[in-house]
Amino acid sequence: MRVVRIYTATMSTTRLLLLGVVRIFQPAYGYQLRRELMTWNVQAWANINPGSIYTGLRTLAKHGYLLELEQDGGHRPGRTSYKLTADGETEYFSLLRGMLWTVDGFHPDKMQAALAFMWSLRRDEVVDALEARISQLESWLKSGPYSERQIREDPGTPNHVVEMFRITTARDNGELEWTRQFHTRIKSGAYAFAGEPADWKPYPGMVTHWGEIPDPPTS
User: Fold this and answer.
1) The whole model's pTM is what?
2) What DSSP state is assigned to residue 214?
3) pLDDT > 70 in the chain, percent
């Protein structure tokens, strides 16, 4: 069951990243989307194999979340462009809200992915979601000493296991501190969200390369 949960969490993060990057640049070719995600270093923090991006795009299209636009009737991944369907738009926001509103300490990649797209939500929702995360983290940390005591008093649990709990608690403390600070910055007007003027524009070279059809990868 643990393996299933890890697999499901990884797949949901991948799905949000693929839907989100298509939503930004649509319609965009598979190779362009792959190249963009590689600049985000997703292979490191989201555990995404670069070669699996094409497979993920095709899977999302098969499930009705993306529309495939073939060039000259071909089936080469780098030459297929994608755009979100209505179901894809719904799935995108469902995944985004789920990851933003719910703390998952064992899968920090979920919040990393949510941060990449939180600007597509309105500011008031992001503020409320961060307050919900703060409450969740505070509750976990408040119960922490009792969980640690149970581990230490359990004769069937090796002594060193308590350190596994402590490192998780340290991470939760760190995220709580960051979330409080981030919440303050958002309430003070930092960054731009849906319905607000953009606070950042890509440089011309970024825009230009999305208007070009690159050669597909050779390997």
Assistant:
1) 0.83
2) P
3) 84
